[in-house]
Write a structure and sequence with these properties.
Blueprint (H helix, E strand, L loop, with lengths): L9 E4 L3 H12 L5 E4 L17 E2 L6 H16 L3 E3 L2 E5 L2 H16 L5 E4 L1 H7 L10 E5 L3 E3 L1 H14 L3 E4 L4 E7 L2 E7 L2 E4 L2 E4 L5 H6 L8 E11 L15 E4 L4 E6 L2 E6 L24 E3 L6 H10 L1 H4 L5 E12 L16
Parallel strand pairs: 1-2, 1-13, 2-9, 5-15
Antiparallel strand pairs: 3-8, 4-8, 5-7, 6-7, 10-11, 11-12, 14-17, 14-19, 15-16, 16-17, 18-19
Helix pairs in contact: 1-5
Length: 349
């Protein structure tokens, strides 16, 4: 590997899906002299990209997010990293069914195709391991699928390097950001200082900590998303790929269930808020799995276990099926759940 350069036009901090995407698209748009650094190893430096469930539902009530999602799926498909499997958002209450009716209207307004409202029996036809008596119906979207985010990030990074636009360095830690006359001027690392005109902060739950080095504020909060993978599931014994059944979002319980090879992945956003400071996240060397994969706390998931049992009793209630993997995964949440994009108001560049 070449040594860290002393100058660059732009330094991208972070080699997860966002950092790799930014580096690739800057290169595609003609930028050169880009340096990417991450304190972790490649291809999985230890952020949330490495443990995300990676499924993508197309419909959102905001046009901007729907268009971002559709464009992302287009890119993933072009690079061969997207597996389309379909997805169903199920309703347990009349109020939720009404909301799903609104969602399909939003989807039609944004030009999304392949959508339909399903009866409980029709949901059962597509997901045979669901208990249709628990639900009133569902909202099916044909274009839902799963992306291999680590592979996608690697391809984007490699293409930017092939264009002669990017140098990428793993295991390089940022120690400080230098600001001169109100503008970013350098990134100080444990392997040297890089003078630069622009810095992209794309390091997930560490972003707030990094931005603060320059006196800027990025309102991100590291928060736990609990998930577990149970299996092997007899129904999935002959699975030929990662996913062959539609992903289910149980909207009234803020949960999801999806086939994951021979296992069933169960995830929740309904447990109590479990928040951290970036300083509490361990290094790669200290972490048992990765810095953003914390030990699972089963007491926080007790209600979710019951909800999953109600919806999919044939799998979740099968005592011969064990727990393959379970984590308190760290994600970074924003105040309004939307992305934070653009130049910081405190520091130019």
């Amino acid at each position: 590997m070449s040594s860290l350069p002393s100058k660059a036009k732009c330094v991208v901090i972070g080699a997860g899906i966002v950092g790799n995407s930014v580096a690739y698209h800057l290169a595609r748009l003609g930028w050169r002299d880009i340096v990417q650094i991450d304190k972790g190893p490649l291809p999985n430096p230890g952020g949330s990209t490495g443990h995300a469930s990676n499924f993508i539902f197309l419909v959102d009530h905001t046009k901007e997010m729907a268009e971002l999602t559709l464009d992302s799926v287009k890119q993933y498909t072009e690079f061969g990293t997207f597996t389309k499997c379909g997805g169903i958002e199920v309703a347990r209450t009349p109020e939720r069914m009404q909301e799903l009716t609104r969602r399909i209207t939003s989807g039609k307004s944004w030009g999304i195709e392949g959508m339909s409202l399903l009866t409980p029996a029709e949901v059962k036809e597509k997901v045979p391991y669901i208990d249709e008596s628990v639900i009133l119906g569902g909202f099916y979207t044909e274009g839902v699928g799963v992306v291999d985010s680590l592979r996608m990030g690697t391809i984007m990074r490699e293409k930017a390097v092939e264009m002669g636009a990017l140098q990428s360095f793993a295991n390089v830690e940022v120690k400080d950001l230098t600001v001169t006359d109100g503008a970013i001027s350098a990134v100080v690392t444990d392997q040297g200082t890089i003078e630069c005109d622009y810095v992209v902060v794309a390091c997930g739950c560490w972003s707030r900590q990094i931005a603060a080095m320059a006196g800027a504020q990025i309102p991100l909060t590291p928060a736990v998303h609990q998930m577990k993978d149970i299996g092997p599931v007899p129904m999935f014994a002959d699975a030929k790929g990662d996913i062959e059944y539609p992903i289910v979002r149980d909207m009234d319980t803020n949960m999801y269930e999806r086939q994951h090879g021979t296992g069933l992945e169960i995830g929740s956003y309904a447990h109590r808020p479990i928040l951290y400071d970036a300083e509490e996240i361990p290094s790669n060397a200290e972490a048992a799995l990765s810095p953003t994969e914390f030990p699972f706390t089963p007491d926080d998931f007790a209600d979710q276990d019951e909800h999953a049992l109600e919806l999919m009793p044939d799998i979740v209630g099968d005592e011969t099926i064990g727990e393959k993997y379970a984590i308190n995964g760290i994600l970074s949440l924003t105040p309004d759940g939307m992305p934070i994009l653009g130049e910081t108001p405190e520091v130019k560049g």
